[in-house]
Amino acid sequence: MKLRPLHAVAVALVTWSLVGLVGQTRELRARSLAPGSRATPGQWRLASRGRERLERCLRAALPLLPENSLTALETPPADNGYLYSWVQYVLPERRFTLGSDDPLWQGVSHVFSYGAPLQDRRLRLGQNLGCGWLYEVRPRFRR
């Protein structure tokens, strides 16, 4: 069977695309499994390092959070929704709210910052957990 020039070009393009796709897949897999991997929360899966790190951090904060208290979650804006969902999944027995939903932190006794330390006169640092910061809202600022 003789290939026409157009068929030969089509076969070459499909082959080139498949080789490129396989190469990208290998590269992405290698990067996602690397020790310093920085996948965003939107890319996390149940067994991902990021989710496991968040869970370890929250489990360390758990004894410091009074039962039935409301804790505000402060995160980088791009990751808000995903991190909040993971927090709800990891610690369903605790009450969390997104800090960005209520900047006055009404009814909040603690603030958990995942990503960056906070500088706010309403807060007193309770614990640097190594992966996040747990703050207590000063009593005079609680509403």
Notes on the protein architecture:
The protein has 143 residues and is an alpha/beta fold. It contains 3 helices and 5 strands; from the N terminus they run ααβαββββ. A 5-stranded mixed β-sheet has the order 2-1-3-5-4, covered by helices on one side. A hairpin with a 4-residue loop joins strand 4 and strand 5. The protein is elongated and about 85 Å long. The chain starts with a helix and ends in a 6-residue tail after the last strand. About 3% of the residues have low confidence.
Summarize the structure.
The protein is α/β, with parallel strands linked by helices. Helices cover about 35% and strands about 20% of the residues.
Q: Strand fraction band?
A: 15-25%
Instruction: Provide the spatial order of strands within the biggest beta sheet.
Output: 2-1-3-5-4
| Gross morphology | elongated
Oligomer: single chain
Q: Please estimate the helix content.
A: 25-40%
Roughly what is the average pLDDT, rounded to an integer? 78
Secondary-structure map:
Blueprint (H helix, E strand, L loop, with lengths): L4 H29 L15 H13 L8 E5 L5 H11 L4 E4 L9 E6 L9 E6 L4 E5 L6
Parallel strand pairs: 1-2, 1-3
Antiparallel strand pairs: 3-5, 4-5
Which terms would index this structure?
about 140 residues, 5-stranded mixed β-sheet, 3 helices, about 20% strand, elongated
